[in-house]
């Protein structure tokens, strides 16, 4: 373990060219990066003629009836009310002139990898949150300096990879994420620590990741509509309604957000399931669902620094019977692509063996990882240091 009193050495976060080394102590910032309309942006690199037009990535409805959904829509298509997860048939009706492109997940995965490599040039501490979102830690002495890094990343993503992105900069990931959402599309939002309370006050509670319709409803019943409404409430009162999360919301409202730990000692297995809107009898659709679910699961393990020793896939058929298949690995593994490939392979084997000669549609699919272990070599991040070692905030 490094000496906790000694700031760790970092690379790639040095002073910016043209800016003299400052005498103020550096502050730890989180830059949240969210690629705009990611699947569409990946496709536009190969089809620049479609820029500025309504484009939808999803199963083209012209190729016959589909129960598929929109995976990504360009901002021009969104003006017609088209959103991710909207059924393709409805999207086609809302915007008949849209160009449809079938998804190419291998391409998106590769480009996502290129993005992470590019971000790795700015910081050793890059945490992926999904195929098109990641956060990185940097050090900067002032808000302006932090913003300059974000601007450079945004320019770099556009120039080197042809990808538009929105970025949020704050001293916690939570606030950086909220700032990113407010900056979409194509913007940069920067919130200094002393500005947090004022920044979040007018926003509806729903903008906080983790606040869904149920939590929103509970808060509404207590007369809370905006985050600012929480600032004067007692943490114990709000945690009475929402558990520990209630305390975090009050802390956010008061401008002292709690940083959620990136690593947790959760249960030793992790699973995710998906029930189709209508039962599905095509391998195409099932394979796509399994791939998406395995990928999301892979990202959550990655983010928590976990390796997996076994992978399983299960189907619940329309008649509610259940079949499953799993594989225990000889050694524990990490990485999103191997998990995705194995889950799809297991699902395909299951589909082939159980479906043969029968016409059974699938109701629910689930993907599971087991025998989870902590990655032994964890990257040391500043968050590992006691608060006193990382806290000094630059005076304004
Ligand atoms: Mg995005």
Q: Please, could you describe this protein's structure?
A:
This protein has helices at residues 38-46, 75-78, 88-94, 105-120, 143-161, 173-183, 196-200, 213-221, 235-242, 244-253, 283-303, 336-355, 387-390; strands spanning 27-35, 55-57, 72-73, 99-101, 126-130, 133-140, 165-170, 188-190, 270-280, 306-317, 322-333, 362-370, 373-374. It is α+β, with helices and mostly antiparallel strands and 396 residues long. It folds into four domains: 27-37 and 106-192, 2-Layer Sandwich (Alpha-Beta Plaits), CATH 3.30.70.270; 39-103, MutS, DNA mismatch repair protein, domain I (3-Layer(aba) Sandwich), CATH 3.40.1170.60; 198-257, DNA polymerase, domain 1 (Orthogonal Bundle), CATH 1.10.150.20; 270-374, DNA polymerase, Y-family, little finger domain (Dna Ligase, domain 1, 2-Layer Sandwich). The chain has a five-stranded mixed β-sheet. The longest helix has 21 residues, at 283-303. The protein is globular, with a radius of gyration of 23 Å. It starts with 26 loop residues before the first strand and ends in a 6-residue tail after the last helix. The chain binds magnesium ion. Magnesium ion is lined by residues 34-36, 38, 132.
Keywords:
13 helices; alpha+beta; Alpha-Beta Plaits; DNA polymerase, domain 1; binds magnesium ion; 4 domains; MutS, DNA mismatch repair protein, domain I; 396 residues; 21% strand
Please describe the topology of this protein:
Blueprint: E1 27-35, H1 38-46, E2 55-57, E3 72-73, H2 75-78, H3 88-94, E4 99-101, H4 105-120, E5 126-130, E6 133-140, H5 143-161, E7 165-170, H6 173-183, E8 188-190, H7 196-200, H8 213-221, H9 235-242, H10 244-253, E9 270-280, H11 283-303, E10 306-317, E11 322-333, H12 336-355, E12 362-370, E13 373-374, H13 387-390
Parallel strand pairs: 2-4, 7-8
Antiparallel strand pairs: 1-6, 1-7, 2-3, 5-6, 9-12, 10-11, 10-12, 10-13
Helix pairs in contact: 4-5, 9-10, 11-12
Magnesium ion (MG) binds next to strand 1.
